[in-house]
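Pilot study result, target chain (362 residues):
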Amino acid sequence: MKEFYMQRAIELANKGTGFVNPDPLAGAVILRENRIIGEGCHRAYGLDAAEIEALKDAAFQASGAELFMNLDPFLPGGDVHVVSETIIRSGIKKVYIGMESPDIDKSREGIGRLKEAGVEVETGVLAEQCKELNEIYAQYITTGLPFVFTKWAMTLDGKLAARSGDSKWISSEESLKFVHLLRQRVAAIMVGENTVRQDDPLLTTRLEGVRISNPLRVILSKYGDISPEAKVLKVDDMTKTLIAASENIPGDREKMLLSKGVEIIKFKEQKGRIEFKEIVKALGKRKIDSLYIEGGSEVLASAFESGVVNKVYAAVAPKIIGGRDAVTPVGGKGIEKMRDAIVLKKVSHEIVGGDVIFKGYL
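Predicted structure:
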């Protein structure tokens, strides 16, 4: 039964998707005599911890109850002792924790204080699910770098688009919804200028029935070769754009882009290219905890070659289009020997609509 209530805590934690970054996703459930008397989640960056919300929901019924949390005591930007002491004062008798925070010192403080006060603590309930839920947080809190993942949709014969460049629509409607769920989760999404020219994407989140959070749109464009009418240059309070450009960007292009209200980060060129690792570092310094690279093939190749990718999603549609000149998902020079291929770990898959979506880690 404890797994059932931890699963509920995970569901609650997901309500903060897109709004808590760079905080973790956190949910909490309070159980008394096999009845849920309180629930809570960390709803947005700077707001209450999930445990505090759940205790408020339980009012004065928490004494002698059990608390389920997907993550150990956490206070956004503050002292974990505040949360631990609140739990202790409430009279909670036992705490179930899914994942111990990668911030080891804070984790020890929070759990240690509970144990010192006589609260029974059990960790590791649905641990793998809880770790995947907060893999972004774990990466960012320990390295200061964004968690980077890629996603592409391809045909059964490995093509990203037809030889004409047409790529609408390779994947199913259900797969497209999956893409927008990924966009909702992350702090930033990246494409290259070629994708902007060919597809003129919005790169926003489009989901029904939930609050929407649009990721920061990061466009890799060395010399700002983007049409002034491009959709990604239309910014407002909900949709922001950052251009990753070369220090050698022409002044007139820089002026045009800045006039659109976008931000530009300029990097030194190394052998005619911008080093991907420097882009990732710069995003980390801006508290961007996650980066979703959506394309195109040369941008993906650069990301893999630089070693910054943490996770891969690949949707395979049951279609065959052929064509020796049709684009494949990852471009670049490529390897010469199969022994040098990138091999994913912890690979799994699920069927979404008519497509098979594979995921794995580097």
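One observation from the pilot: Residues 99 and 128 are 8 Å apart (CA to CA). A full batch analysis is planned for the follow-on phase.
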